[in-house]
Design a protein that fits this description.
Strand order of the largest sheet: 1-2-17-3-4-5-6-7
Number of helices: 12
Number of strands: 17
Structural class: alpha/beta
CATH class of the largest domain: Alpha Beta
Pathway: Amino-acid biosynthesis; beta-alanine biosynthesis
Keywords: Hydrolase
Order of helices and strands: HHHEHEEHEHEEEEEEEHEHHEEEEEHHH
Helix content: 25-40%
CATH architecture of the largest domain: 4-Layer Sandwich
Shape: globular
Number of domains: 2
Pfam families: CN_hydrolase (PF00795)
Distance between the termini: 64 Å
Family: Belongs to the carbon-nitrogen hydrolase superfamily. BUP family.
CATH topology of the largest domain: Nitrilase/N-carbamoyl-D-aminoacid amidohydrolase
Protein name: Beta-ureidopropionase
CATH superfamily of the largest domain: Carbon-nitrogen hydrolase
Mean pLDDT: 94
Low-confidence stretches: 1-17
């Protein structure tokens, strides 16, 4: 439940306590709802989250077994539904998607075995809540099975790396079978077949517990402390789309969302839902967070599911000593420019969303972005750009001195 305060001064004082909330609220959505008149909030919400089939996004009721777990374990639980227009020749293709955001469970100084075990136990009831809610495809956050030690330069965090079929995959396979659920598990991978190198990898587990395949992160950030190339380099799996029992999905890991061509190619390969497991902090990206993913969903006529870890992770040590404040706020964008409200800014959470995949084709037809794109022009320019002798196409005013 969100916290509320009696006056602005109390709100501001609480916000300075750095608990991760937004002036004492779980989210911007709740802050606005509680402080605006209902008719003002309705209009502001329309502008911020759009309309789906001409209406505000609908909430859906979840079973008591799911909500009871949320109450018992204190995680945020929200559920929404994206509709599509009714068609004559196609039945609705409704898929229920779940996104999990979570903080770590023990200090980063605790024994590594204990840290991983504690994270497993922390996400267990959230996964059970997703399963009880009938989720078909579940995605966890980037490197969910460990603290984000890759933002330090301390190589001890390599010990968390595991094979594709390692401990984290085995832990999740039982849930996939139990709940008939596809699970996307972003891990720190150690490739035992290629010199034990490390990758940032998403493992796609099928609803029968089988491993469908993997995708390795395409774009690696090198921004100040956020220099992940200390641990791993760019992936080598291209832009795979995984055809599952519930739809065609792809994983655009974290930093890849900043690269529009990365999002484009997943769409060209036929993705209907993009999952974006992320670990990002407020001072760096929070202003971008509500924008980029919605842009990708609109431009590529697919759903875009954004998951960010939450909470503060403190890394004391001889190499680096720093705090990372992750802001959660996981949400889903649709091809019609509508989106869900965000999960909590400072608490663990599960976002459950029904989405009719027919909306993807309907918006391809409506806007015609694939038809009106000029791929041959883009390809020609990119081919020239890659050559050392490339010269930009700039026409200079002859009267300039």
């Amino acid at each position: 439940m969100e916290k509320k305060f009696q006056n602005r001064e109390e709100n501001e004082q609480f916000n300075l306590s750095n608990d991760g909330s937004i002036c004492g609220y779980d989210s911007l959505h709740l802050l606005l709802k509680d402080n605006l008149k209902p008719h003002h909030f309705q209009e502001v919400n329309r502008l911020l989250t759009g309309l789906n089939c001409g209406k505000a996004l609908e909430t859906i009721a979840l079973p008591q077994s799911a909500t009871a777990l949320s109450t018992e374990h204190g995680f945020d639980l929200q559920a929404f539904c994206f509709h599509a227009d009714k068609e004559v020749l196609r039945e609705p293709r409704v898929v229920r998607v779940g996104l999990i955001q979570n903080s770590i469970a023990l200090p980063t100084t605790a024994h590594f075995v204990d840290q991983k075990k504690a994270i497993f136990e922390k996400v267990r009831p959230i996964i059970d809540s997703a399963g009880s809610s009938g989720v078909n495809i579940l995605c966890l956050q980037e490197m969910w099975m460990m603290p984000l030690g890759v933002w330090t330069r301390d190589k001890k965090w390599c010990e968390f790396a595991e094979p594709v079929d390692g401990e984290s995959t085995k832990f999740l396979q039982s849930f996939a079978v139990k709940y008939n659920m596809v699970i996307i598990s972003p891990i720190l991978e150690r490739d035992l077949n290629h010199g034990e190198v490390i990758w940032n990898t998403a493992v796609v587990i099928g609803n029968h517990g089988n491993i469908i395949g993997i995708h390795r992160k395409n774009h690696i950030p090198r921004i100040g402390e956020m220099n992940e190339s200390t641990f791993y380099m760019e992936g080598n799996t291209g832009h795979p789309v995984f055809e599952t029992a519930f739809g065609k999905i792809a994983i655009n890991i974290c930093f890849g969302r900043h690269h529009p061509l990365n999002s484009l190619i997943f769409g060209l390969n036929g993705a209907e839902i993009i999952f974006n497991p992320t670990a990002t902090i407020g001072e760096l990206t929070e202003a971008m967070w509500p924008i980029e993913q919605r842009n990708a969903a609109i431009a590529n006529s697919y759903y875009f599911a954004s998951i960010n870890r939450v909470g503060t992770e403190t890394f004391p040590g001889p190499v680096t000593s720093t705090d990372f404040n992750f802001y959660g706020s996981s949400y889903i964008s649709a091809p019609d420019a509508s989106c869900t409200p965000c999960l909590s800014h400072h608490r663990d959470g599960l976002l459950v969303t029904d989405m009719d995949l027919n909306l993807c084709r309907q918006y391809k037809d409506k806007w015609g972005f694939r038809m009106t794109a000029r791929y041959e022009l883009y390809a020609e320019t990119l081919a020239r750009y890659l050559k050392p002798e490339f010269e930009p196409q700039v026409i200079r005013d002859p009267l300039l001195h």
